[in-house]
Each structure stands twice: as C-alpha cells, then as structure tokens.
Amino acid sequence: MNAGNVRPVTGCRVCGASDWQDVVSFGEVPLANAFLEPAASYDDEPSYPLGVISCRSCRLMSVTHVVDPEVMYRTYSYVTSDSETITRHMEFVAATCRERAGLAAGDLVVELGSNTGQQLAAFARHGCRVIGVDPARNLAAVANEQGIRTLPEYFTETTAGAVHRSHGPARLILGRHVFAHIDDLAGVLAGVRALLHPEGVFAVEVPYAVDLLEKYAFDTIYHEHLSYFLVRTLDTLFTRHGLSLFDVERLPVHGGSLLVLVGRPEARRPVTDAVGELMAAEERAELGTDAAYREFARGVRAVREELPALVRSLLAEGKRIAGYGASAKGTTILNICGLGPDEVAYCTDTTSLKQDKVLPGTHIPVRSPDHARNDPPDVYLMLAWNYADEILRKEADFLRAGGRFILPFPKPAVVSADTVR
Ligand code: TYD
Ligand code: ZN
Fold it and tell me: Cβ(178) to ligand 1 under 6 A?
C-alpha cells in the first residue's frame, strides 16, 4: 500500500542545486525498521518509493523521497547493538573526541540521536556531564532509566538553545549515524552553532559514500538514510553553515564510515592532511562525474541478479537457508532481491524487541539465537555483514559442523570453515 507522509526530494539539502543524476530505483519498499507482529494479512502495510539520486553540483547522494520523521522515529526499534565491535568502537570514539576536543571532567557533551545512551555513558565514565537528545520516546525513556539524561526531542535550534540556557555551552556535540538521517541540515547546524563552545568540537560519524560505491552495498540504501556523503560534500555543507571541517578519519564500522571533526572557523584549528588526502582520492576516483554512479548502478544490478540465483541454487540442492541478523540492511536486501519466507526460513537476531516479529515486506519471522541453535539452517545469509568477522568467530561451531555463510557484497560468495581465515 502506498502511504502518505512522503515527499519527493527537489533541491539538494547540501547545496540547493536541483540538477540530479538518477542512480538506482528500487520501486516501493516498506520502512526497513518497521517490524510487524505476525498477522493473517499484511494488506495495509505501508510502503514508500525508494531510490538514489546524485547532485551534479556537490555530489551528495540522496534518497529520492523523504518520509516524515514522525513516522520513522517516534517509536524506534533500532537499539544500538552491544556487540563487541560496537562497544570497542564507542570507546574509540570517546577517546578520540576527548583528546581532540580537549575534554576535562565536568565539560558538557551533548549527543543527538543518542539512542539508549551507550555512547554517552562512555563520556560519563570519564566525568563529563552528558545530555542526550533523541526523538524516539521509547529509547529516551530507556536512557533516562539508565541515568543518561535524554530529551525526547529532535535536535533543533530551539532544543539546543534550551540546553545552552540550562547547562551552558557544549565542549563536544556528537552525532553518530544520525546526520545521514536528517533532512533539515540547516536547522541542525543552526542548533550546533547555538550550543557549541567557541573552542568546542562537533563530531559527526556517517557512512562513507565511497564504501557504498566500492562495495555496491545497496542494502544501506533505505528511507532513514537520506544522505550518502563524500568528504568534499561535507566540507561544502559545513562551510555554507559557518562551520569548519578540520579532521576526518576513515573507519571500518557499519560497513565503512567517516568520523568528521568540525569546529568554529574563529577557533582556527589547523586542517589535518587527512582532509585533503581523502578529497584528492575522491577526485582521482572521478566521483564528480556521472560515470562513477553508472558503474555503481551496474554493480547493484549484478548483485540483485546473482544473490537470488545463488540462494535458489542452494535451495535446489535441498539446503535450508536462514538470515543472520534482522538488520535494517537485511530487511532492505531481502525486499530488493525479492527473497521471502519460501527462500529464507527465518532471521536470527539478538535484539529482543525484534524477536517473534516479522520482517517488513517479506514477513520472514525473526527468531532468537537460542531458536537458531536448536534449529540451525544449512546456510546463513549474512545480513549483518558489517559484523562478519565477529559473527564468523562466534559461529565457529556452526562452520565446523559444515555450516556455510553467504556474504552478499561486493559479489555474492559462499564461505565455509575451509575458506574462513
Ligand atoms: P546493525 O548493523 O547494527 O544495523 P542496521 O539495522 O542499521 O543495518 O544491525 C545488526 C543487527 O544484527 C542487529 O539487529 C543485531 C543483530 N546481530 C545479531 O543478531 N548477532 C550478532 O552477533 C550481531 C553482531 C548483530
Ligand atoms: Zn548538492
């Protein structure tokens, strides 16, 4: 069912231009995190157009349509994972930001999209005052119960001004994997300017468009992810809004991300070599030209053909297949590749909020890891491939017993005990 609450993108949210290159289009797809209770019929399940366009002026990649955030975020089932990978990463982010922002005990750290507060807890442990801002009322309540003070709001100039009045300026403002979800970047950056200490740092972590382009990892394209950024695009954005990007680091987390550090221009922080080096690499890869995005579209088409073909050939050999991780990426790839419960028996996931629900669109059931251990498939389709190393280690017994995994990107491939490092 095509739902309301959605509008097509017209002007570029970074540079205002409206000369778009069409990159890929996936038709109508339900929201990636809209898990459903099992039901006899799903006729009224909403779906929304999904595709990507690239701005020929600043090379922002954007989804074609923006769904009303009230629909996506007020009650949100994505809970920050407590996987080893993420726990380690959060410690790294806390250490890097403490060092780069020169944080001392008592300094204020504000995080937008703070989810259940795990990242802020890493700053609180070092004596910082912390405040989270997250519109998901269910998650803000969890964070508050755990002692991480969280406002159940969007981060805007108004919210930021209120925090400034009650707590003073923030030495660090953090937005991890939330920046790509924001349509009104001008509003958020006005909030950052209102709240940031003159010497403060705004740290942003976003999926890097280069990783998306190189891996053809089109499962990160879903309605929540409005923007896919290059360093050059972020630089344009911050400059337009009176801020200055001074450092960037490429990180493996979430399939390939950037940690970007931004300050006030008056603070005159030296710009690190990494900024120029990444922008030069983007230039060398000709990411300012249409050809790069046509090549991405070709790779996406190939995975969309090869993955269902591989799954069907394994089924034809009598193998039983289940999904590993009911990630938003997973629900997206299954929908886009047209794989449903006839092909994938269930998806296993550690998130209790998702268990015993069904995936959006495909209605494949989500099962707990206990269920999966008692009823293992022959082959797992790796849907949380951003944690592949951790998962392959954890599932060594399954592999030793002859189990196999399908890794979808950049080209679908099967791994077994013999081929895992
Ligand atoms: P994640 O990659 O965090 O994000 P997204 O939803 O943005 O694609 O999702 C990973 C999912 O995989 C999450 O629902 C938890 C689940 N998971 C497991 O079930 N087992 C595991 O060992 C790990 C690491 C994740
Ligand atoms: Zn643009």
Answer: no
